[in-house]
Design goal:
This protein is α/β, with parallel strands linked by helices and 561 residues long. Helices cover 37% and strands 20% of the residues. Strands 1-8-17-18-16-19-20-21 form an eight-stranded mixed sheet, with helices on both faces. A seven-stranded mixed sheet has the order 3-2-4-5-7-6-12, sandwiched between helices.
Length: 561
C-alpha cells in the first residue's frame, strides 16, 4: 500500500471528497483544514468516485452550512460538511430533520470542547455528547490511520442504512497529529457502494409530482411514524459491521463496532473511545509483561450503541469495568458510562462498572494515568466520577498518579519555540522529509495555546522503526531544542532529557554568558546526564541573510545535523 504523511483532517478529507457531490462548510478550529483540502482539490478539478468535481460552498455560519447540506440532500445530492464544538451545536436543528427524513449524510467532526466557563479551541467529546440525541449515528476513530480507514465506513453505511453519520476523531490530538498513513485504495472501495440504495436516494429527491417533505403532522400519526424508524437503527450495527469486514479485506485490519485489546482472560477492562485508546494499548502491553490481566474495549460505533457487538468482544472473565468519558455532564453521569452500565444490567451480569473523566480540553493523558485507573479497580473504596490527569484538591475525585515506565522504542525530540518563529512548520517539515524518504514511522504533535502568535509552542516528535501509538506528550526526549533563551529561566525543559542526550539552544549570548544565565538545576542535569550542549545564534544568521525573525530554516538544518 502507498504511504503518506498526513494528519487526521487530511485523512478524513481524502475519503469525504471521494464520496461527496457537494461540501458546504464554515471554518472552525480544529476542523478547518479538512474543508480547506476539499476546496483545494475541487479547484484543481480532482474527480470523486462518480467522476465529478466536488462543488464547494462556504456559508456565513455553521447553521448556514448544515442548512445548505440539508437542501442539497433534498435534491438527491450526497453532501458533507466539516465542523467542531459550537459549530456542531449550531447544526442541531437540521440534524434532527436530516435524521428524521432518513437522508444519507456525513458530518466530519474534529471533536472539541464547548465554551462553558471559558472557551477552549482544544479537544474532548463534549460536542459529540451534546448531539447524540439527534438521531445521527456516531463512528469514532482512535488514530490518523483509523480516520483513513473508517471514514469510508461512515459513507458506505449511511448510503445503505439511510441513517446520517457523525464521523468523529479527537480535535488536535488526531486532527492535527502527523503520522505515516497507508492510503486506502478507493478503486477497491468503490464497488462496495450499494448502487441500488444510492439510486433510491437520488430518485427520492423533492418533486412536485412525487415527493413531498416538511409537512405538519398532529397526534394522530407523529408517534407511529417515529417508531417506524426503529428498524433502520436496529439494522445499522450489522450494516456497519459488514462494511468493516469489507474494509478489513482491503487494508488488512480487524475493525469491529467494538474492538477488544488485551488479555483473553482479563479481570479488569477499560472502555473508552478516541485517541486515548492508543495510549491504553501501550499501557496494557507494559502491564501484561508483569502478569496483569487487563484489557481495553475500544468503542468505534458509539451510536447506535449495540449490546450485541459490545458483549461479543467483552471477555467473560471480566470482574470490573472502568469507563472513561472525555467530557463532564454536570448533575448526572457521563454518557458512555451510562451506556455501558445499561448493557451490563440488561444482560443480567454482576460485573462492577465505574465511571470516570479524563482529557478535557486536550489535557494530556499518559500511561501513568491509565495505570492509575487499573490500580483503582483493585481498591475496595471505588467511587464514580473519578478523574485522572489532574490534581483535584477541591472535590477530591482525582486518582493518585501511578508510575509506569513505558519504552516505545521511539527516538523523541522536544522543540520549545516561540509562536510565529516558524518552529511548528519546521517540525512538520522534519516529519515529512524523514517519513517520505525513509522507512521510519513518524509522529508530530504541536502543543500551543489559543494565543498562537507570541505564545509558547512545544513540538513533540517521535521517530521509530515500528508504528507509533504514543498519543501523549514526549516524555524522554533524546534531543531538546529551545529557540528563546529566556525560557531557561521560565521552564524546566531539561528535566526529562535522556542520558547522553543533546540540548540545542538558540541564543545571541556568548558561551560564558549562557553558563552564567542558566539555573544550577539545568547545569546539574547537563553534567550528571552527560548532555551534549550546542548553541547557535539563529536570529543573527537569519538577519544576515534577509530572513527577518524566521529562524526555522536555520534551526531545521541544525536539528538535522
Amino acid at each position: 500500500m502507498k504511504k503518506m504523511i498526513m494528519d487526521g483532517n487530511t485523512a478524513a478529507a481524502h475519503i469525504a471528497y471521494m464520496f461527496s457531490d457537494a461540501v458546504s462548510v464554515y471554518p472552525i478550529t480544529p476542523a478547518s483544514p479538512g474543508a480547506e483540502h476539499i476546496e483545494e482539490w475541487s479547484s484543481k478539478n480532482k474527480k470523486n468516485l462518480f467522476g465529478e468535481e466536488v462543488k464547494v460552498v462556504e456559508m456565513q455560519s455553521e447553521a448556514g452550512a448544515i442548512g445548505t447540506v440539508h437542501g442539497l440532500l433534498q435534491t438527491g445530492s450526497l453532501a458533507s460538511t466539516f465542523t467542531a464544538s459550537q459549530g456542531l451545536l449550531l447544526m442541531i436543528p437540521n440534524m434532527y430533520k436530516i435524521a428524521g427524513e432518513l437522508l444519507p449524510c456525513v458530518i466530519n467532526v474534529a471533536a472539541r470542547s464547548l465554551a462553558t466557563h471559558a472557551l477552549s479551541i482544544l479537544g474532548d467529546h463534549q460536542d459529540i455528547y451534546a448531539t447524540r440525541a439527534t438521531g445521527f449515528a456516531f463512528l469514532a476513530s482512535s488514530s490518523v490511520q483509523e480516520v483513513m480507514d473508517l471514514t469510508s465506513v461512515s459513507y458506505l453505511s449511511t448510503i445503505k442504512g439511510k441513517i446520517p453519520f457523525v464521523n468523529f476523531f479527537d480535535g488536535f490530538r488526531t486532527s492535527h497529529e502527523l503520522q505515516k498513513v497507508e492510503l486506502l485504495d478507493m478503486e477497491k472501495v468503490k464497488p462496495l457502494i450499494d448502487k441500488e440504495a444510492l439510486e433510491d436516494f437520488r430518485k427520492n429527491a423533492l418533486s412536485i409530482n412525487k415527493v413531498t417533505r416538511g409537512t405538519n403532522i398532529n397526534d394522530d400519526l407523529y408517534f407511529q411514524i417515529s417508531e417506524t424508524r426503529n428498524l433502520f437503527y436496529d439494522n445499522l450495527p450489522d450494516v456497519v459491521n459488514d462494511y468493516m469486514k469489507e474494509i478489513n479485506k482491503i487494508c488488512g485490519k480487524d475493525y469491529k463496532p467494538f474492538n477488544y485489546y488485551g488479555s483473553s482472560d482479563a479481570t479488569k477492562v477499560i472502555v473508552a473511545m478516541g485517541s486515548v485508546c492508543e495510549t491504553i494499548k501501550e499501557t496494557i502491553d507494559a502491564l501484561s509483561e508483569n502478569g496483569e490481566k487487563v484489557g481495553l474495549l475500544e468503542v468505534h460505533l458509539f451510536r447506535p450503541f449495540s449490546a450485541k457487538y459490545f458483549l461479543d468482544v467483552l471477555p467473560k472473565s471480566v470482574k470490573s469495568i472502568a469507563v472513561l468519558d472525555r467530557s463532564k455532564e454536570n448533575g448526572t453521569r457521563e454518557p458512555l458510562y451510562l451506556d455501558v452500565l445499561n448493557v451490563i444490567k440488561e444482560a443480567g451480569m454482576y460485573t462492577e462498572v465505574i465511571g470516570g473523566r479524563y482529557g478535557l480540553s486536550s489535557k494530556d493523558t499518559a500511561p501513568d494515568d491509565i495505570k492509575s485507573v487499573f490500580d483503582f479497580l483493585n481498591r475496595r473504596d471505588k467511587y464514580n466520577g473519578f478523574t485522572i490527569g489532574i490534581v483535584d484538591d477541591v472535590t477530591n475525585l482525582s486518582l493518585p498518579k501511578a508510575h509506569l515506565d513505558v519504552n516505545s522504542g521511539a527516538r523523541e525530540i522536544l522543540i520549545n519555540g516561540f509562536g510565529s518563529d516558524g518552529m511548528v512548520s519546521v517540525s512538520k517539515d522534519i516529519l515529512k522529509i524523514v517519513g517520505n524518504n525513509t522507512d521510519a514511522y513518524v509522529q508530530e504533535y504541536s502543543e500551543y495555546d489559543s494565543k498562537k502568535s507570541g505564545g509558547v509552542t512545544r513540538c513533540h516528535i517521535r521517530l521509530s522503526d515500528k508504528p507509533i501509538r504514543s498519543t501523549y506528550y514526549v516524555r524522554k526526549p533524546n534531543l531538546v531544542v529551545c529557540t528563546k533563551d529566556t525560557y531557561l529561566k521560565k521552564f524546566r525543559m531539561l528535566d526529562n532529557i535522556e542520558e547522553n542526550g543533546t540540548f540545542l539552544l538558540n541564543t545571541s549570548k556568548s558561551k560564558e554568558d549562557v553558563i552564567k544565565y542558566m539555573t544550577n538545576h539545568d547545569k546539574s542535569i547537563i553534567s550528571d546526564r552527560h548532555i551534549k550542549f550546542y548553541v547557535i545564534d539563529a536570529n543573527g544568521l537569519a538577519s544576515e541573510v534577509g530572513l527577518g525573525n524566521k529562524i526555522n530554516t536555520i534551526m531545521a538544518t541544525a536539528i538535522f545535523k
